[in-house]
Structure formats: structure tokens, C-alpha cells
Design goal:
OB fold (Dihydrolipoamide Acetyltransferase, E2P); alpha/beta; RecG/Mfd; 729 residues; 24 helices; DNA damage; nucleotide-binding; seven-stranded parallel β-sheet; ATP-binding; isomerase; six-stranded parallel β-sheet
């Protein structure tokens, strides 16, 4: 059979039943099969002899099942499969499999397989307990490497390997999408050879060369997609808003009670230059907690208002939107009171527009936005609804970018004939590779310097597993801070009350990413909840203090009332979910207790503790956990306690999280095209691919002359996404 290419259907090649089984892996075409790479290899030259095994050794060996027997477990329900395996030299070792009934149909006498596991001892004899295993057939005997594939219950790795070899035997070499210039400069092997050698390698060098080439494919696919998005955005005209001497921005700068940092000046200059151009700005400003991003954003908004246009600030939650509106009005003072008694002559006005406003207030807010009476409009996702209109929207500021999808950003960016400028802010520092890969369609600026006057924050892990008595000390410390005239937060992972049913309902509706399972395999109780913790504190260790409750399920007016009471000092302690994670600014708050701190990510913990120490008094953050020492969860908490550098924690967070969760933000459709690309290991490749991609797209904006590269974008981030880019060009 000839003429088989990457788009060919699999069924004629592998049969109807096997093709159906492969669909459980989302594999339907030849291309999807050959892009289903081995997850590991067994080097037959490095296999261990059973006779040379030692206790504690991690061993990989080839052996044949000699005997197998299924028996009941003694101390609990279930079956054990006891197996004796023999290697080519005649030595034997026992293996034990839990849930033996699930593997007995595969591990039976006569089967040859690769077994991998840690060598232990039982009743004085060496054994492998629940080892990984991979059966193989005679064809594998002559190959130096055994390829082990991701598989499912419907198809084994061995069957996948057989299908791959069957397809490779008849597959025509694909047309190489990477330009010859790139392949030559980077010394990359041809695509056809790379695809064959990653599946059937003859040496370790084959594996490395093939993986390196295929990583390049994925990096180029991602960077081309981002370059296309950037190009499509840049082709739209935007309203130029150059600085206006003697305008509102100059008046604001003149009344600022503090000096801008060097970083704020530098980033402000970049933004000012972007706003003065006739193409839309698309800039990401990342800054650590307390780096002064709000002032930078406000100065950009005032420059646009000086140009006769409006600015919109989009926040992820109503609490944060209301907080932003109050903060902007406070910073502006008389300059934010247009039409009001005491307003400055050139003043503008700040309007809050959220989904929960009353009918009368909502009508007025919509009118202010539509008529242009409001120079600055602050709101939640309600701002991107079709019926919300603006007189002349010149700038969109998106706060906490990771809470919004690309589609939501584009909904605001695509309004009107002139594209508004776009400023994206995040207080979650982003590693360089993530910025290049996930936000590659944006220019990136960083605020690393903290304004003068910010107080230090001391962070301590409270390990209840080893030192339960410290829990009492936590609440004494809260009393001490309140007695000194300060306030405190107590943060819980979930709301509680009526949400104690399904796991999906355990967390605050505004905080959907908090997990309830341990990453160390520990059996865990339900996470602590605001509605359960608050009354216990009121009746117990914090009795006598004024305690408030705040979470995402409260009606918006109640949320606002609680926050205002806390800001005015009418509450001593606020028991809350992570609804306070970003944007909340109460300088008198000096203490934060985070219960079940192991349930949160590194960056989230860093964001939370940034709510204290915002005034002249030092802050303290207490991370309470019952996870034992020497667990991954405790390592994460120790990392947070060990540094206040958000950029360092962001990199650690990336190392500890699944990269697929980050890269998944790039993709659409049912199947991910990213299998080998690593944000941590492939920074140099990603950086080079970004440069090549920008050159290619600048020369060929629609990739009309590079159909192979256009197809690569589709394979990597999805055909729907690629079509969206090309339609805009």
C-alpha cells in the first residue's frame, strides 16, 4: 500500500476494531497516531539481571511469567495476584499486584514483559510490589529500545506500538513544514526521520535528535499562532492619544502625595508611547504584590481621557470592581468629581457598572458610559455584554488577566471601527517562558520595585501535625494585633453551609481553582469553611472581637457593606474566602491566618499575604496546615515562608504544577497538540522560535506561502483558532 499521508484514516490500515480502540486516545488519523509519542523507553542494554538485584534498588528487567495465583487480601477487601517471574539467565523473583483481578488476564504464565519497580523484601525473599509492566511480542526482541506508549483500558501500549510500526512501514515522508533556513541553522533532522526515530530508535542519540526536532515543531506552532494574533490586532486602526500638556494627567501627577518609583516611570513611558500611536497597544504589565500597578493603569486612563476618549477597567469579581472604583476616586480626589460640588475644573468621573446594580443605578451607569459623561467605567464581565455601549472607548484595562479568557478580552477589543488600546495587568508574576508562550501576543513590562513605605511581611508555617499547641498561639497573635489597633484576616478554602454536598460545590464560586485533594496522597478531611469557622472563632479563641464574614456567595450589596465596614475599622477580623485575594487594600490590616494553607497554590498564597503589611506597620502571615513534614505540600509552604519574591515563587509554582494546565490556555478543540514542549526545559527553543515566527509572519501575514506552517498552527493550537487568525488578516 502506498500514498498514505498524515491525513489518512486509520481504519483501512489497522482494522475497524483497533481503530475504534484508538479513538479512546483521541486518535483517528495517521497523523494523530504518529504524533502519539512514547512516554518512555526501555533500553535493553541497561536491563538488570534478577540475580544482581539489591534491596531498595529501582530495577527494570525483562522476564517471563512462570506462575501466578490470585488470593484474598488478609487485612482488607480485595485480591492480590502473586506472580513468579524468571529472566533469561534462569533467576526468579516474586511480584505482588494489588487489585489482582484487574491484571490477571494480562499477567499470566508464558507472558514476557518488562517489569519496573523498587526491590523490597517479604518473608526473607526479594520481591517487586505492584511493579509497572509492559508485555511485548517477538518483534520487540530484536530492537535495542522498547517504546512504551500512553494507553487506555481499551488498548495497550503493546497494541499501540504495533499499530505505529504498521503505519510507519507504508507512510510517505511528510512535507517538512519548517523552512530550510531554520532546519539548517538549528541543525534539526528532517520531520520524516524524526517521526520514525522517536518511535523506533536505534540509539539514545536518535531519541534526543527526534525529540529536539519535534519540540521545535510545537514551539513554532505556538509562536506562529501568537505572531498571527499580534499581526491581526496590529492591522486594525486605533485612536492615537498622545500626552496633552497641562491636562488631567499632569494635574494628577502634581497632586500625588508620593513619588513614583523608577519602574513606574519607565513602564509609564512605554505605555504613553504606545497610546500615542495609531495602532492598538497590547501590553501586559506584571508586578509583584504592592508594586503600584493601579497608579500606572490610572495614569494611562487619564492620558486617554485627556485625548477626549473613555477608559474601561475590567475586574474579575464585583468585590474587586467596587474596590477599584473606590480606589480610583480616592486617588483622583477633586479630579474625579466632574459635575459635583468641589470637583476640579478639568475633572472626569468614575462610574461603576456591575451585574447586581439596582435598576435605577444601572440605567444611570449605562447612560454615563453611553453618553461619555463617565471618562472611566469600572466593572466586571457585565462591561462586555452587547447592550453596554461607550461614547468613544479608547482604552481597556484588564485586571488579573489569568481570570479572563482570550475571547473575553477580544469582545471588548473588537468594539467600534477604531480598536481600543489594551492594557493587561497581573499581580501574579509570570516566568519568562510563560510570558513568551501564553502571552506572546502582548508586549510585556515588569514592575519589580516596591514603593517606599511598604512594610515587611513575616511568614511562618504553623505545622499542626508536629506542633498542635501552636494553634492556640495563632489566635493569641490575632488578639495582639487587634490590641495594637490593627485588623486581621482569616482565610478558608471554602464557603460552607449548604455547600457541603458534592465536591464541585465545596469552593467559593469566585475561586473555582482551589483543590480539595492532597498532592501527597494523604487522606484528607473536608476543607475548612468560612461559615463553620467564623462562629467557632466568635464563641472560642476570638470571643470579644468584632468578626465579619465575606465570601463569593453573599449578595453583592452585602459584600460591599462588609468590605466598607472592614475598611472603616468597624470590624477587627474578617473571615473570608479568597475573594480578598487581589485588589483589596486596607492599610490597617497587619495579620493574616490562612487555614488549610496546603490547599492553595504558591502564587495564590503570595497574593493573599499581599493583603497585609500595606501600611506603616509590619505584616504577619501564618500558614496553618496539618500536612506532615517531608511532603510536597509542606515544601510548597516552606517556599512561600522562605521568600517574598513573587517572581521566584512563580517559577517554583510552574515547576510544581502540571505544565499542561498552563499550555492548555493556548489551545482549542478536542485534542491538545502540545506533547513534548516544556516551559521549564525549552526556554531557549521557545525564545528562538518566537524570533523566527515573527519574521515569517511579517513576510507572509496569512501564511499563504507557507501552507505547511499554517497546518502546523492548526495541529498545535487547533484549526478553529488558526481560522480565526487567518480570517482577520
Amino acid at each position: 500500500m502506498t500514498g498514505i499521508d498524515m491525513s489518512s484514516a486509520l481504519e483501512p490500515l489497522v482494522g475497524k476494531r483497533t481503530a475504534a480502540a484508538l479513538e479512546s486516545l483521541d486518535i483517528a488519523t495517521v497523523g494523530e497516531l504518529v504524533r502519539h509519542y512514547p512516554r518512555r523507553y526501555v533500553d535493553r542494554g541497561k536491563l538488570t539481571d534478577i540475580a544482581g538485584l539489591e534491596i531498595g534498588e529501582q530495577a527494570t528487567l525483562v522476564a517471563q511469567v512462570e506462575k501466578s495465583a490470585l488470593r484474598d487480601m488478609r487485612s482488607r477487601r480485595g485480591k492480590l495476584l502473586s506472580v513468579v517471574i524468571r529472566d533469561e539467565k534462569g533467576a526468579t523473583i516474586d511480584c505482588t499486584f494489588f487489585n489482582g483481578h484487574k491484571v490477571q488476564h494480562v499477567i499470566h504464565p508464558g507472558v514476557r514483559a518488562v517489569f519496573s519497580g523498587k526491590v523490597g523484601v517479604f518473608n526473607g525473599k526479594l520481591q517487586l510490589t505492584h511493579p509497572q509492566f509492559e508485555p511485548f511480542d517477538e518483534a520487540d526482541e530484536i530492537r535495542p529500545f522498547l517504546s512504551v506508549y500512553p494507553a487506555t483500558g481499551k488498548i495497550t501500549s503493546q497494541q499501540v506500538a504495533r499499530c505505529v510500526r504498521q503505519v510507519l512501514d507504508v507512510l510517505d515522508d511528510p512535507t517538512d513544514p519548517l523552512p530550510e533556513l531554520v532546519r539548517g541553522r538549528e541543525k534539526l533532522t528532517d520531520l520524516g526521520r524524526a517521526l520514525r526515530r522517536i518511535h523506533v530508535p536505534e540509539s539514545e542519540a536518535d531519541i534526543h535528535a527526534a525529540r529536539h526536532r519535534l519540540v521545535w515543531d510545537e514551539a513554532m506552532g505556538v509562536q506562529l499562532a501568537l505572531a498571527l494574533r499580534r499581526q491581526a490586532t496590529a492591522t486594525r486602526p486605533a485612536a492615537a492619544c498622545p500626552p496633552v500638556p497641562g491636562g488631567l494627567l499632569d494635574a494628577f501627577d502634581a497632586q500625588l502625595p508620593f513619588a513614583l518609583t523608577a519602574g513606574q516611570h519607565a513602564v509609564g513611558a512605554e505605555i504613553a508611547a504606545d497610546l500615542a500611536r495609531e495602532h492598538p497597544m497590547n501590553r501586559l504589565v506584571q508586578g509583584d504584590v504592592g508594586a503600584g500597578k493601579t497608579v500606572v493603569a490610572l495614569r494611562a486612563m487619564l492620558q486617554v481621557v485627556d485625548g477626549g476618549r473613555q477608559a474601561a477597567l475590567l475586574a474579575p469579581t464585583e468585590v474587586l470592581a467596587a474596590q477599584h472604583a473606590r480606589s480610583l476616586r480616592t486617588l483622583l480626589g477633586p479630579l474625579g468629581k466632574a459635575g459635583e460640588l468641589g470637583g476640579a475644573e478639568q475633572a472626569t468621573s468614575v462610574t461603576l457598572l456591575t451585574g447586581s446594580l439596582g435598576a435605577k443605578a444601572r440605567r444611570q451607569a449605562l447612560l454615563d458610559a453611553q453618553s461619555g459623561a463617565a471618562g472611566i467605567v469600572v466593572g466586571t464581565h457585565a462591561l462586555i455584554q452587547e447592550h453596554v455601549g461607550f461614547a468613544d472607548l479608547g482604552l481597556v484595562v484588564v485586571d488579573e488577566q489569568h481570570r479572563f479568557g482570550v475571547e473575553q478580552r477580544d469582545a471588548l477589543r473588537s468594539r467600534g471601527e477604531l480598536a481600543p488600546h489594551m492594557l493587561v495587568m497581573t499581580a501574579t508574576p509570570i516566568p519568562r517562558t510563560v510570558a513568551m508562550t501564553v502571552y506572546g501576543d502582548l508586549e510585556v513590562s515588569a514592575l519589580r520595585e516596591l514603593p517606599k513605605g511598604r512594610s515587611p511581611i513575616a511568614t511562618t508555617v504553623v505545622p499542626l501535625a508536629e506542633k498542635p499547641s501552636w494553634f492556640e498561639r495563632v489566635w493569641r497573635r490575632v488578639h495582639e494585633e487587634v490590641a495594637a489597633g490593627h485588623q486581621a484576616y482569616v482565610v478558608c478554602p471554602r464557603v460552607g453551609g449548604a455547600d457541603t454536598g458534592a465536591d464541585a460545590d465545596l469552593v467559593d464560586t469566585e475561586d473555582p481553582d482551589i483543590g480539595a485533594d492532597s498532592d501527597d496522597g494523604q487522606a484528607k478531611r473536608p476543607p475548612m469553611a468560612v461559615l463553620e469557622v467564623a462562629p467557632k472563632l466568635d464563641d472560642g479563641p476570638l470571643h470579644g472581637l468584632r468578626i465579619g464574614v465575606l465570601h463569593g456567595k453573599l449578595p453583592p450589596d452585602e459584600k460591599d457593606a462588609v468590605m466598607r465596614a472592614f475598611e472603616r475599622g468597624e470590624l477587627d477580623v474578617l473571615v473570608a474566602t479568597t475573594v480578598i485575594e487581589v485588589g483589596v487594600d486596607v492599610p490597617n490590616s497587619t495579620c493574616m491566618v490562612i487555614l488549610d494553607a496546603d490547599r492553595f497554590g504558591l502564587s495564590q498564597l503570595h497574593q493573599l499575604r499581599g493583603r497585609v503589611g500595606r501600611g506603616s506597620a509590619p505584616g504577619v502571615c501564618l500558614l496553618v496546615t496539618d500536612m506532615p513534614a517531608a511532603t510536597t505540600a509542606r515544601e510548597r509552604l516552606d517556599a512561600v515562608a522562605g521568600t517574598t519574591d513573587g517572581f521566584e515563587l512563580a517559577r517554583l509554582d510552574l515547576e510544581l504544577r502540571r505544565e499542561g494546565d498552563v499550555l492548555g490556555a493556548l489551545q482549542s478543540g478536542r485534542r491538545s497538540g502540545l506533547r513534548l514542549l516544556s516551559l521549564l526545559r525549552h526556554e531557549e527553543v521557545i525564545s528562538k522560535a518566537q524570533v523566527y515566527a515573527q519574521h515569517v509572519v511579517a513576510d507572509d501575514p496569512g501564511l499563504r506561502r507557507h501552507p505547511g506552517l499554517a497546518a502546523l498552527v492548526g495541529e498545535t493550537v487547533g484549526d478553529e483558532e488558526r481560522a480565526a487568525y487567518l480570517d482577520k488578516v
